[in-house]
Amino acid sequence: MKTNTTFKTLALALGLALAGVAQASTAPLPKDLPAYGPDKPLPVPQIAQRTLPNGLTVWVVPRDGLPKVNVALSVLGGTAADDAATPALSRMMARLLNEGTGSRSSRDIAEELQAIGGDYGAGAEADAINIRASALASHASRLLELVADTALHSTFPAKEVTLAKANALQDLKVQQADPDWQAQRAFGHAAYGDHPYSRDSLTEASVEAASPDALRALHDARFRPDRALLVIVGRIDADTAFRLAEQQFGNWKASGTALADTAPAPRTAAPQRLIVPRAGAVQSNIRYGRPAVPANDPDYIPLTVANTILGGGFTSRITQDIREDKGYSYSPWSRFSANRVGGSAVATVDVRNEVTGATLAELAKLYGSMASQPASAEELTGAKRLVGGIYLLRNQIQGALTGTLANYWVDGLPPSFLGSYVAEANKVTTEQVQAMGRKYFAAKDQSIVIVGDPKAIDAQLKPYGTFVAFKP
């Protein structure tokens, strides 16, 4: 998911908007502003559910509005199921699903999508391979046919595979030069160790192994109806949607032995001190965090609210201290990311070399404050309204709602979570936030990963332990 990380774009946009407002006027707000109005009942769409005879789970959400239908197909078994010798090979496979089937070339697929006012994307995340597609509601039948064809009958043509491999190698070179990518890769290893969640990026070995035969074999092993969900959302009635699902996916049969479930990821880890040397760098890219919990854990919602107070919004403690007060970084923030069998909580702060050590000191103080300093009424109310507001705003968008429901299923959550999330977030108390601080934000438990120039920052790092070079 992703779960929570899917809100990042809206949260950052909202934060920048608030920043603009803050900078536009320094006048204090009037003291007699009215209190917040009472919370309104949350609109929860009706989700029709059915399981086809072959085991495929189908969720349908009829919606008025734009004459459009969105479709999501998720199949369990993403990058966490890939072989350690060829990490993220499923990403290569997913990228090529729409590059040719037994009856359509890649050009045929592109032209058909254009004809029905559609779009299509496929990818692999840690726990699933996902297809997301949409089209005009009048062409729902053709859209479902196209999704089924690419999902079940992809042929991985040799010329398309060759081109995709060349592009992937170029992308990999760009990524390897990106300090943010380097920092996140190193943090994944610090948080998850040898668990498959740490292997979510392609390597040259993965790309070289992506032959048509290898991709077809991987596809056949992963794509099973009894480990898949189809979500259909839009201007379509449930009976029609179920009929089309049965028509296009009813003959899909499972074969062979299903993949074993991914083992639970660690929830604790010995804190590490890692540096990715980047000679001549003028700034340090800092990642400060630890493993956490999966999306179905009882701590998920309280930890979401606590993280929002710590670093998940423009008025968060991290932003107000490191950006507004100290001026060390333009956009420091923290993220809690929850998946099917594990999660992580991490702060991202990019600072100039001269204040690297001072920033680590501030992070330790801020993390410690989550246990020692109870959230104020203003902090708690603001965090809840930010969490709930972004969630409700995002899921008014039909495509986002489709993806949210698919992600819930992948993460082992029921569709009813859609209606309970905001209500449960609003129940979080100051005491719960402080408990999350003690449990997940103690400074002594956080790993520190830095991408930077050792010569420029080595002296500043000494108070925080011995940093060793990260070698993937």
UniProtKB/TrEMBL annotation:
Its EC number is 3.4.24.-. Residues 211-385 form the Peptidase M16 C-terminal domain. GO terms for biological process: proteolysis. InterPro entries: Metalloenz_LuxS/M16 (IPR011249), MPP/UQCRC_Complex (IPR050361), Pept_M16_N (IPR011765), Peptidase_M16_C (IPR007863). One of its GO terms (molecular function) is peptidase activity. Keywords: Hydrolase, Protease, Signal. Residues 67-199 form the Peptidase M16 N-terminal domain. Pfam families: Peptidase_M16, Peptidase_M16_C. PANTHER family: METALLOPROTEASE, PROCESSING PROTEASE. This is Zinc protease. Residues 1-24 form the signal peptide. It comes from the Bacteria.
